[in-house]
Specification:
The chain is α/β, with parallel strands linked by helices. It has a single domain (about 5-120), classed as Rossmann fold (3-Layer(aba) Sandwich), CATH 3.40.50. It has helices spanning about 10-25, 35-45, 60-70, 85-95, 110-120; strands at about 5, 30, 50, 75-80, 100-105. Strand 1, helix 1 and strand 2 form a beta-alpha-beta unit. Keywords: Phosphoprotein.
């Protein structure tokens, strides 16, 4: 089981993001399209999904909708991490019960704080 699954199709974002999270001590897996997100989640059951909205094959919002509609997967924390920072994008993601929303480019410290918050959420009494 990995701590974090990153769903990001841009290597220029994925590689440094993975490095930052692994350097912070988390076990990280990554995929580059929406269909692979669902397959990986069913196989590895990560505690947190960092989800880009603009993914090939299945959009991040479609992935989020599928996760939240599946009672076996609905408990996975989802942090949307996207370049699409318009008000309607944030609203759609939060309406689909995303646990957080960060726009790219992001501050590494802010991202790490949000990841820590979400990963500690499932350990709270």
């Amino acid at each position: 089981m990995s701590d974090i699954l990153i769903a990001e199709d841009e290597p220029a974002i994925l590689d440094p993001l993975r490095f930052i999270l692994e350097h912070a001590g988390w076990c990280v897996e990554s995929v580059t399209d929406g269909e692979a997100v669902l397959a990986s989640i069913r196989r590895a059951r990560p505690r947190l999904l960092l989800l880009d909205i603009m993914l090939p094959r299945l959009s991040g919002l479609e992935v989020l909708r599928i996760l939240r509609d599946d009672p076996h997967l609905a408990d996975i924390s989802v942090l949307v991490l996207t370049a699409r920072g318009q008000k309607q994008d944030r609203k759609m993601a939060l309406d689909l019960r995303a646990d957080g929303f960060i726009t790219k480019p992001f501050d590494n410290d802010e991202l790490l704080a949000e990841v820590s918050r979400l990963l500690s959420k499932d350990r709270a009494p």
